[in-house]
Write a structure and sequence with these properties.
The protein is an all-alpha fold. It has 19 helices and two strands. It has helices at residues 15-19, 22-53, 56-64, 70-75, 80-83, 86-106, 111-139, 145-170, 176-197, 211-222, 228-245, 248-252, 256-277, 280-295, 307-318, 323-333, 340-368, 371-388, 390-394, and strands at residues 401-402, 406-407. It is globular.
Length: 414
């Protein structure tokens, strides 16, 4: 592992500078369209299954359970993130996703068949995440990586607001099949954007995409002790809060769209502030506190509060997801360039797998008790996990300073 870090930027870069890059615009737009499709699809399928079965576990499983398939991507073909032509892989995966959502829309399928299709798409997305984040390293300069990651996260937040909020409204006036066709259209639009918006770049390292190559890289990455606290911090506390979010449908029914949209708005706001207005040292300092901000507001679900109040608290708590930006920045700094796609793919897939596990466990607990106390219990667990990781993270995430205590990268904001 390389411990060499890039010299800090003299100023905080801007989104305007980032979006001048045409290739970044193509990557951003394609990601936004894919996220809009996936959020509309997941909410629609969760409501359909919840209405048919009345089970919080099954609703959580169909909405977040496909994330479990992402561990297969880590275990099998994640080396494609660095050993395959990125544009080609992203187009193939967009075609796979479009076909699967179209099948969900066209046919009256049993819950098990819908879950299998969702698992297939999730497996592809696990590989696509590594390809996309690795490509981001190539498309933008090192000084723009966090801002680029922030902008990509903002597209996730914006499309989740649109996907969850709009889908919630549309489902009151349209059939689930119609909403799924709209999701299919969003997914299909991403294909020409990828084809004409991205350069046909060569693979990052000269090896063949295979199971053996995936595990060679995995052993090298997971054997590094400095990155383990980062991977734990990026997965466990966040995953436990996703377990809370997985219970929004059984907790609020059709009102879950507002809770989910509020969470997306909070996540988007946190990424905007952390990615755009803070420098490297400030991001690391803010991450110490954002990990706790993430969990505390969700404890309020133990109290019977109006939906609007809970939505506001969810928005505040979701700002805490922005701690991931600083953690991912350090993770990239500790990883050799030829493995950065794979390490970011591993991080993303482990995070999504944890999301799926926590969603299923939360759904099981809610079936045994009820959604409100289950949400409060998972929020408490997230808070305790963040407390336990405080000391290990402090050794890695110490703000960078030079001279007489001044920040090495304190610069003006443009």
């Amino acid at each position: 592992m390389s411990s060499t870090t890039a010299p800090p930027p003299a100023f905080v870069p801007t989104y305007r500078q980032l979006f001048v890059n045409a290739e970044f615009r193509g990557l951003w737009i394609a990601s936004a369209l894919g996220n809009a499709s996936s959020t509309m699809t997941s909410l629609t399928l969760a409501l359909v299954v919840n209405a048919a079965t009345g089970s919080a576990l099954l609703a959580a499983l169909v909405m977040f359970g496909p994330s479990l398939a992402q561990v297969l991507g880590v275990s099998t073909l994640m080396s494609a993130a660095d050993t395959a032509r990125p544009r080609r892989i992203l187009i193939v995966l967009a075609l796979l996703s479009t076909t699967a959502v179209a099948a969900q829309a066209a046919f009256q399928l049993p819950a098990a068949a819908r879950l299998v299709l969702a698992l297939l798409v999730a497996y592809g997305l696990s590989i696509g995440s590594g390809v996309r984040w690795g490509l981001l390293n190539d498309v933008v300069t090192p000084d723009h990586f966090v801002l680029g990651r922030s902008a990509m996260n903002l597209s996730v937040g914006a499309m989740q607001i649109a996907g969850f909020g709009v889908a919630g409204l549309l489902l009151q006036a349209m059939s689930p099949g119609t909403v799924l066709w709209l999701a299919t259209g969003c997914s299909a639009l991403a294909i020409p954007v990828l084809r004409f918006g991205l350069l046909d770049r060569a693979p990052r390292r000269g090896a063949r995409t295979s199971l053996a190559e995936t595990w060679r890289g995995n052993r090298r990455l997971l054997g590094e002790r400095r990155t383990r606290p980062l991977l734990l911090a990026l997965t466990i506390p966040n995953g436990l809060i996703v377990g809370c979010e997985a219970l929004f449908v059984p907790y609020a029914g059709a009102g879950a769209g507002w809770l989910l949209a509020a969470g997306a708005a909070g996540m988007m706001s946190g990424d905007l502030v952390i990615g755009r207005f803070l420098n490297r040292s400030q991001r690391r300092l803010a991450a110490r506190w954002l990990r706790f901000v993430l969990a505390v507001p969700f404890l309020a679900f133990a109290i019977d509060l109006p939906l609007g109040v809970l939505a506001a608290l969810v928005a505040v708590g979701s700002c805490g997801y922005a701690a991931s930006l600083a953690q991912q920045e350090v993770l990239v700094e500790l990883t050799p360039p030829d493995l950065r796609g794979q390490v970011l793919g591993i991080e993303s897939a482990l995070r999504m797998t944890t999301f799926g596990v926590c969603a299923i466990v939360a759904g099981t607990l809610a079936d045994l008790t009820s959604p409100a106390p289950a949400i409060a219990a998972f929020a408490t667990a997230s808070l305790l996990a963040s407390v336990a990781l405080t000391v290990p993270l402090a050794r890695i995430m110490t703000p960078i300073r030079t001279g007489r205590g001044g920040s090495a990268d304190c610069g003006r904001t443009l």
